[in-house]
Amino acid sequence: MICDDCMKNNATVHLTTFSNGQVKTVHLCAQCAARRNKPVVLAGFSFNDLMGAFYEAGGAEETVCEKCGMSLSDFQKTGKVGCARCYESFRDSLMPVIRSIHMNERHTGKRPGETVRLDMDKDSEHELKKERLARELKIAISTENFEEAARLRDEIALLEKEGG
Amino acid sequence: MPEWLKDGAPESDVVVSTRIRLARNMMDMPFPPRIRTREQIEAVHAGAADSLLKCPEFRYTRLSGLSEVQKRALLEKNIISGDLMDSPDGAIIMNEDESVCLMILEEDHYRIQAIKSGLALSAAYYEAETLDNMLSEGVRYAYDGTLGFLTSCPTNVGTGLRASLMLHLPALTAAKGIQRISAMVGKVGMTVRGAFGEGSAAAGSFYQISNQVTLGVTEKEIITRLQTTAGKVMDFERNTRKELYRNLGVSLEDRIWRSVGILRNARKVSDAEAQKLISDVAFGVSLNIVRGLTAGTLYRVMMDIRPAVIAEKYGIIQPNQRDVFRANILRDTFREVYDL
After folding, report:
1. In A44, B37, B85, B214, which residue has its Cα 20 to 30 A from B283's Cα atom?
2. Cα dist. B188→A49, A50, B20, B212 in Å?
3. pTM of the model
4. Smallest Cα distance from A60 to chain B, Å
5. Cross-chain residue pair A107–B10, CB shorter than 8 Å
6. Structure ipTM over 0.90, yes or no
């Protein structure tokens, strides 16, 4: 793909902008991307740096979040919302942005308090356990909780016997 | 000396460290950019302090109680972010070796962070999640059934999870392979950026690779993808190291030994120069050109000689004096290096 700006180099940066209710994607080479958007990070872009580009001036009507008082134009300037309710208040402007950042609009990860099961190999699990116990032991000793310290020491010894 | 940076960590010839960050906010509370009253600020602090300080491992520190130098040292060690440093009401709760912490009133109410040596994504995630679940017992999170964890910036919404690896890529940097890596990594929703300093040339060829997409993917998917991507980058880097050595032979050895020479003899070294030289030596260690040092020691000393870290530890503020002090530390460390 050729860069939209210089029509010469290979485009490596794909910049999605959101203006007047339309999502537009431009394809740029690293140099032209740098010219358009100052904070270039090597060739990959930080989405945060790009946020400004997403929120170009929209319609005339000013939407304000009833919960925190943040206005849509504040949000467009800073790229940050004011509270959880803003996601509802600015839904129409936000969702296209969220979709273009994440290519998705539905959370599939954990809920508060849930535990994610990761397949950790036996060795790292073992190592992690030992590290934790060692940390707890240090605290038990420093707080002169010797009973706890003795218990932890035994536990560590047992772990070490089990497998290195 | 960052205790968490260990010797013999997994894949430490390429991966310096692993970091997991989780963004969380309190329900029914304006996000940090809009937070105004003392009561609100204190409620955010209390939510975290009440949930975490039960555990004697953690200490609570207000940023306002730290000197500029102390704050900057935490920033240089990658423990706190620039955003937190600038937050007048910010605080940090962390464990003794600084490997697990919670930033309060950064861009979000809470940023949970876990750091590990080498490639250890699952272990770091596990540490972060333990803290996350402790916090969620005392704090009701801003969470939406469809959008997941709600954050100040829509770039973090969903899982709120940012997983990143600090990589040392001297061969790919020398062989101009970083652009290719960026393109490859970009295709799977991740980015590469210089780990130190802003903009163009990353000092000492250290890079940060992390996920960009946080919504519509599970925590496990994010971690697995980063792991797979890192695996490809590691292979690429290692092959390029061997290839460079094959092609350059004694010229490469010469460059590395010259760097050792400076580290072992110089009387004044700036931070940027030290990073570059240490990067060369780490390259040499991985190819067995240089012996007597581990990658872990090199990464640790690199942290130890950052300007504010020296200023904090030894009370040396004068840049000129600091360069002298840095050279002393380096001479001490590199005395043991030997040739075959």
Report:
1. A44
2. 19, 18, 18, 9
3. 0.81
4. 23
5. no
6. no
